[in-house]
Amino acid sequence: MNVADKTVLITGSTDGVGKLVALRLAAEGARALLHGRDEKKGEDVLRAIRDETGNDRLEYYQADFSSLDDVGRLAEAIEAKHDRLELLINNAGIGPTTRGKVKREASRDGQELRFAVNYLAPFLLTHLLLPMIRKSAPARIVNVASAGQYPIDFSNVMLTRGYDGMRAYCQSKLALVMLTFDLAEALKGSGVTVNCLHPATLMNTKMVIESGAEPLSGVEEGADAILHVATSPDLEGRTGVYFDGKRPERANAQAYDAEPRRRLRELSLRLTNLSPGE
């Protein structure tokens, strides 16, 4: 995909790998829509990318993904200013711990925090923006998942029993892979492709550092992988694939099972107050 003059949205793009992806897309002439939680930081990043690339068609949108109302307002704000969206990169997320906290945390809506931020927020945002994305075909949706994937126990989705931060994180990332496969199937023939990836292992990001892990790779490697899935002409028309870096790989077995995907889809529609056709 040639992104020059295309409208692209990168969630979680004021830090880490998302920031670098936004910078590179802006340098290619994209109309880049940035997203983050902190308005001042967002404006600072916007200004820095504009200064570095000379691209003045950049916009910043503030939304806290721990609130579904915020996600809804984000979609409304984008729809109010744009009628096309050729590329959506769902990158925003949180790691196994938040500033060292190891206890279970809840979102503003009362859901387990990692499930809410890493999965429910992109589920809702993608569905709300889908009419615009369909209208913009050929278009791509890229979900930034992880090689860390844990099967969902539908009797304990919110992990009110036996909470573990790593399990919560890995469950939320598998849910994002399952969403990818579901959407890819639903959008076949529409000109919209949906793929997901593990960008790189333990990148040198704030998320990894906060989790207490030792970084093993850089955001440059992760950005290369994300942009490959997002823009490579070799992937034109290819959909429903999980990548490890730039290589197609096999995700957790639960992602290929139609019944758990159905249960997750129905749960997600209920939690986000969406109708099945949305």
Describe the SSE topology.
Blueprint: E1 7-10, H1 16-27, E2 31-36, H2 39-53, E3 59-62, H3 68-81, E4 87-90, H4 113-135, E5 139-144, H5 165-186, E6 192-198, H6 206-211, H7 219-231, E7 242-244, E8 247-249, H8 258-272
Parallel strand pairs: 1-2, 1-4, 2-3, 4-5, 5-6, 6-7
Antiparallel strand pairs: 7-8
Report on this model:
This protein is 43% helix and 13% strand. It is α/β, with parallel strands linked by helices and 278 residues long. The protein has one domain (7-272): NAD(P)-binding Rossmann-like Domain (Rossmann fold). An eight-stranded mixed β-sheet has the order 3-2-1-4-5-6-7-8, sandwiched between helices. Helix 1 (16-27) packs across helix 7, helix 3 (68-81) packs parallel to helix 4 (113-135) and helix 4 (113-135) runs parallel beside helix 5 (165-186). It is globular. The mean pLDDT is 93.
